[in-house]
Design a protein that fits this description.
Number of strands: 10
Largest sheet: 8 strands, mixed
Number of domains: 1
Strand content: 15-25%
Order of helices and strands: EHEEEHEHEHEEHEHEH
Number of helices: 7
Radius of gyration: 19 Å
Shape: globular
Strand order of the largest sheet: 4-3-2-5-1-6-9-10
Helix content: 25-40%
Length: about 290
């Protein structure tokens, strides 16, 4: 099954797909879930590149915020060592702050992402394919809290077609990280989603807020995703404030219903999903 979001994506005929990377976009409505899923996905693909975006309050920027980009460079086949590795051999990427001026948060991210992917592609790191044993070179892109993946994916597809460095590159999946512990609280939250700063969750705190409510963002991110990656309950979960007739929590059922409307796939344990599986379009549970 091809998810409607990705029907126009895929750049197989535009170059050598075998050596070009596949991009996986990771979205989420809270930072903890995003970080947890990203760490899990990268754990099985140490050669993969990672670009993570976060948002910070910035009074000097016209929009009142800046985007902070962190990079973990990919390792290509035949690369003996990673020049960005520290003395313990752990890769450490660069960090850069990008003020949001004269454009929206989504545009700031997609334009910078295009530049960063272009720099890596032109460096030749993927010229001879990915790491030994890996089917396809991969890049995991962790988007800022609340930013939707579809506009980013569509922009990247156009960029891959326009630039020579984009030959064969494609967006393989839009994965949404959902933490079940606080899903109900976020799903029914009609307060604006906090993007950065703030000590509390109320508008008026020292923070930057989305125009959309938290609940709307949660629903939209699930609906647009090709894969919804659920993080298992580790605490009291949704506190069982809504249950079915048998007394069971309905959080998973709500998520599956939203995902089904967008032909997404729900994976009930994010830690069992690999980056390679997302690149190949595979999943554990089809809604």
């Amino acid at each position: 099954m091809i998810h409607p979001t990705l029907k126009s994506l895929g750049n197989a005929e535009h170059g050598d797909e075998g050596s070009a990377p596949a991009v996986v976009l990771l979205t989420g409505a809270d930072r903890l879930s995003l970080d947890s899923v990203a760490f899990s996905l990268l754990d099985g693909r140490p050669d993969a590149g990672m670009i993570a975006y976060d948002v910070r309050v910035d009074d000097a920027a016209s929009a009142g915020l800046s985007v902070v980009r962190r990079c973990l460079p990919p390792i290509g086949r035949g690369v003996a060592c990673d020049p960005t590795a520290d003395v313990l051999g752990v890769r450490t990427g660069g960090t850069e702050s990008l003020p949001v001026d004269e454009c929206c948060l989504s545009c700031t991210v997609k334009h910078d992402l295009e530049r960063q992917l272009g720099l890596w592609a032109e460096s030749g790191v993927w010229r001879d394919g990915g790491a030994v044993g890996a089917e396809t070179p991969a890049v995991l892109v962790m988007l800022p809290v609340g930013v939707e993946g579809v506009p980013i994916a569509q922009y990247l597809e156009d960029a891959f077609q326009l630039h020579e460095w984009g030959a064969g590159m494609r967006v393989a999946a839009i994965a949404n990280a959902v933490g079940l512990d606080e899903f109900e609280e976020r799903f029914y939250d009609d307060a604006p989603l906090m993007l950065a700063g703030g000590l509390g969750g109320e508008a008026g705190d020292d923070g930057v807020f989305d125009e959309r409510s938290t609940g709307v963002v949660v629903s939209r991110l699930i609906h647009e995703a090709t894969h919804v990656l659920e993080l298992p309950v580790i605490g009291r979960g949704c506190l069982a404030r809504h249950v079915d007739a048998s007394g069971e929590c309905m959080c998973r059922a709500i998520i599956r219903a939203i995902a089904a409307g967008g032909d997404g796939v729900v994976c009930e344990d994010a830690h069992e999903v690999t980056l390679d599986a997302l690149v190949r379009g595979e999943a554990t549970v089809d809604v």
